[in-house]
Design brief:
With 79 residues, the chain is of the alpha+beta class. The protein is built from 3 helices and 3 strands. The protein has helices spanning 13-20, 24-33, 56-65, and strands at 10-12, 46-48, 51-55.
Length: 79
């Protein structure tokens, strides 16, 4: 099966997790609970049928929108 990633636009959940360096569970939980207070929102996604896809441009924008920290103590400001 050819990966949809070869089109250069959409990534499946597993590929998006590898691209971001996070777990698939992080993305799954974010889709369900990312809107709640105290939760880290995850990148925008597309649902086509039962399949979930992420656009590379949305993943890159999510990374750029994340705060840059010098040490973990700064992270407390964003919780």
């Amino acid at each position: 099966m050819t990966s949809i990633c070869t089109a250069g636009r959409l990534l499946r959940e597993k590929e998006a997790a590898l691209y971001l360096g996070c777990s698939r569970d992080f993305l799954r939980h974010g889709r369900c609970y990312g809107h709640l207070a105290g939760r880290t929102p995850t990148p925008k996604f597309r649902k086509i049928g039962r399949n979930v896809f992420y656009e590379i441009t949305d993943l890159d924008a999510w990374i750029e929108g994340s705060p840059r920290l010098r040490h973990t103590a700064e992270a407390e400001r964003y919780l």
